[in-house]
DNA sequence: CAAGCTCTTCAGACA
DNA sequence: GAAGAGCTTG
């Protein structure tokens, strides 16, 4: 096998297939390439069966990319290699074994909204809502943090001196009970329950320990403790583990990523080999130098070298607008000019931002400028009310116990099952210890439920059962169409008295959902409703099948950009408060934000442009903004036009005028 | 009990 | 700019 496109250290990492190794290296040093080549080496040289190889990535997008790169490399022989995220691996195992843990295999996955509505419900039931000590969001956060560290309600209940903590503990306990009752698990449970399988049903899991002879983990710096433990179980038997990561790119601390996983690797795997990669093949020295200046302000970094042999490259660009609209217009024009001048494709460009809400204006601006674009990773689609409502029908059909979804739809669109009827139904649930759906099925037998409502409940339940049948037999997409027509969801949306534009949008989203299901069926004719639901829960919108990736500018958050690269990168919104994000600063200091900046900058291969607006609209009022602190860490000589300006006002104005004149001149020349 | 209205609150990243 | 809460009205 040809290893000439790897450097010495990479080759070492690729060919040291036995035992644990840790590849610790900076951005763009070819870590991902190591994983790809290693898999290729295992299959081609060591004749390892693909099914014995497991590579874990952090996002589905990364998994798919790796799949593509492997396909290019192995042309079919990669078939059978398992590439997945910890979460999808977990779901796969749970499907098979979750009954051991007291759930049924048709479990559903609760997202943040579902979780919070459960928590709200519990707090209402226990009159904890206006205790002033806790709120649903806070409890949700605490539960999440605890779960990421592998802790349960006891962790809170033990802290007797804090009423707040004990209340959180009570809600937490109840929360787990409710979820179990709904046969639902949350994202953290996916990992926790999988781990529990390994710990408590160890023998049943033995085949799994046996299965993967070679385990690889990309973006290792972002794993949390639970994932780490899971990883240990998976490679326990064979011990052939290769993890690659970069402590400077650890940007998921808020989700429990634990840097100890890197620090303790040597302790937990004493025979581990540590390999460092020091050459960056991605960016120009200019970009790399700037990125290093930003990250070097962080204390307590692991020592790492990173150099690039590429030609120096062009200086960094800086764009400043009077407000966000102007900032983004300038960015758009810049892209337009460059595409024309250099004959580049739009797909060579990425616009990266800190927070999702920034994407709206970017999108509008690009649309107005006629620049084609695609947005990656926005979760908002599946969080929209109308989409969630439609999905709730599917979830209830799949799992009658899913009471969060059931409550969403039992009276939407209206079918005369009001609040009081539900309270009565609920009373019978508790009295007879039956799930709500069972009560609905025979609502007329329960005298306290008003007759009208009871009839309605029964026919609702019958309808669900009818569609459950149909989903098992007919094409998913068609049944969904019938279902939504039957319950009148689209009709309800269309007859709402709101402005026609939003109305159109909402209907459009539901249509898109139906098209998505059609596409899913086309691509996976054998799969069932449960597969679709699983996909929808795990794969956010990222997965839009890369429709014609060609010639579109990519828009995404800095977080989703990790691991990717583009010839031209624009980092927009480089203003204090936005990036670094204020809340993040307050809660966890600037270091992670700084790493995020490092990640963003090092996505660029040839040219990096940063931009900000001097004023920004926030809700109603306008606020003036100052330049992001990260910019002042970059040597101004690396910029073509230095941001903020160390020059006096006169010069500054002049330069601005000058560059604007240049700019318009260029525009004219191009037209 | 439903419908329509205003008011408030919220916008940190992801699986 | 969107969604939920809470109010009034029919
Ligand atoms: N030995 C090599 N020779 C030439 N190019 C290489 C070599 N190794 C990697 N590259 C290229 O360098 C770029 C970065 O590689 P890769 O994505 O594997 O880096 P990485 O370390 O995973 O980056 P990051 O940490 O930013 O995710 C890719 O375009 C890759 O093709």
UniProtKB/TrEMBL annotation:
Transmembrane segments: none annotated. One of its GO terms (molecular function) is DNA binding. The keyword ATP-binding applies. PROSITE patterns: UVRD_HELICASE_ATP_BIND (PS51198), UVRD_HELICASE_CTER (PS51217). Its EC number is 5.6.2.4. It catalyses: Couples ATP hydrolysis with the unwinding of duplex DNA by translocating in the 3'-5' direction; ATP + H2O = ADP + phosphate + H(+). Keywords: ATP-binding, DNA-binding, Helicase, Hydrolase, Isomerase, Nucleotide-binding. Residues 285-563 form the UvrD-like helicase C-terminal domain. GO terms for cellular component: cytosol; DNA helicase complex. CDD domains: DEXQc_UvrD, SF1_C_UvrD. ATP binds at residues 25-32. Residues 4-284 form the UvrD-like helicase ATP-binding domain. GO terms for biological process: recombinational repair. It holds the Pfam family UvrD-helicase. InterPro entries: DExx_box_DNA_helicase_dom_sf, DNA_helicase_UvrD-like_C, DNA_helicase_UvrD/REP, P-loop_NTPase, UvrD-like_ATP-bd. Belongs to the helicase family. UvrD subfamily. This is DNA 3'-5' helicase. It comes from SAR324 cluster bacterium.
């Amino acid at each position: 096998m040809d290893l000439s496109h790897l450097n010495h250290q990479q080759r070492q990492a690729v060919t040291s297939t036995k035992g644990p190794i840790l590849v610790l290296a900076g951005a763009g040093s070819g870590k991902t390439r190591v994983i790809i080549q290693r898999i290729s080496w295992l299959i081609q040289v060591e004749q390892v069966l693909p099914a014995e190889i497991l590579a874990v990535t952090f996002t589905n997008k990364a998994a798919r990319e790796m799949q593509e790169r492997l396909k290019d490399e192995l042309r079919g022989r990669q078939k059978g290699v398992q590439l997945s995220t910890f979460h999808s691996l977990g779901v796969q195992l749970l499907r098979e074994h979750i009954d051991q843990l007291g759930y049924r295999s048709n479990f559903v996955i609760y997202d943040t909204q579902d979780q919070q509505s459960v928590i709200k419900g519990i707090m209402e039931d226990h009159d904890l809502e206006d205790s002033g000590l806790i709120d649903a969001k806070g409890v949700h956060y605490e539960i999440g943090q605890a779960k990421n560290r592998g802790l349960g309600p006891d962790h809170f209940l033990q802290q007797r001196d804090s009423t707040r903590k004990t209340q959180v503990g009570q809600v937490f306990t109840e929360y787990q009970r409710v979820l179990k009752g709904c046969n639902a698990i949350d994202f953290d449970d996916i990992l926790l329950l999988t781990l529990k399988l390994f710990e408590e049903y160890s023998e049943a899991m033995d085949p799994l320990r046996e299965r993967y002879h070679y385990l690889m983990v990309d973006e290792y710096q972002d794993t949390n403790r639970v994932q780490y433990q899971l990883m240990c179980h998976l490679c326990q038997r064979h011990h052939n583990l290769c993890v690659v990561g970069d402590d400077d790119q650890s940007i998921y601390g808020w989700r429990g990523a634990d840097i100890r996983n890197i620090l303790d690797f040597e302790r937990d795997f004493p025979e581990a080999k540590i390999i460092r990669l020091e050459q960056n093949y991605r960016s120009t020295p200019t970009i790399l130098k700037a990125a290093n200046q930003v990250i070097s302000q962080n204390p307590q970094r692991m020592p790492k070298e990173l150099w690039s042999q590429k030609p120096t490259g062009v200086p960094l660009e800086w764009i400043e607008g009077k407000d966000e609209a102007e900032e983004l217009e300038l960015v758009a024009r810049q892209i337009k000019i460059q595409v024309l001048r250099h004959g580049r494709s739009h797909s060579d460009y990425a616009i990266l931002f800190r927070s999702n809400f920034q994407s709206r204006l970017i999108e509008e601006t690009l649309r107005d400028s006629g620049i084609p674009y695609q947005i990656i990773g926005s979760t908002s689609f599946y969080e929209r009310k109308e989409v969630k409502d439609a999905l709730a029908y599917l979830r209830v059909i799949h799992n009658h116990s899913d009471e969060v979804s059931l409550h969403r739809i039992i009276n939407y669109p209206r079918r005369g099952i009001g609040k009081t009827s539900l309270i009565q139904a609920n009373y019978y649930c508790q009295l007879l210890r039956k799930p709500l759906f069972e009560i609905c099925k025979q609502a007329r037998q329960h005298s306290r439920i008003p007759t009208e409502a009871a009839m309605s409940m029964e026919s609702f339940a019958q309808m669900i059962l009818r569609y459950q049948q149909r989903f098992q037999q007919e094409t998913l997409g068609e049944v969904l169409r019938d279902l939504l027509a039957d319950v009148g969801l689209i009709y309800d949306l269309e007859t709402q008295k709101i402005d026609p534009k939003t109305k159109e949008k909402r209907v459009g989203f539901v249509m898109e959902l139906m098209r998505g299901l059609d596409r899913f069926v086309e691509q996976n004719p054998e799969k069932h409703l449960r597969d679709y639901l699983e996909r929808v829960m795990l794969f956010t919108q990222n997965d839009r099948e890369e429709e014609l990736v060609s010639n579109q500018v990519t828009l995404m958050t800095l977080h989703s950009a990790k691991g990717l690269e583009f010839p031209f990168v624009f980092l927009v919104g480089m203003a204090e408060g936005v990036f670094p994000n204020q809340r993040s600063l307050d809660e966890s200091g600037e270091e992670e934000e700084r790493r995020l900046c490092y990640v963003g900058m090092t996505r660029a291969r040839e040219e990096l442009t940063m931009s900000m607006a001097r004023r920004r609209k926030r809700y109603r009022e306008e606020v003036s903004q100052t330049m992001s602190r990260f910019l002042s860490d970059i040597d101004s000589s690396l910029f073509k036009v230095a941001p903020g300006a160390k020059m006096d006002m006169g010069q500054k104005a002049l330069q601005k005028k000058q560059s604007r004149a240049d700019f318009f001149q260029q525009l004219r020349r191009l037209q």
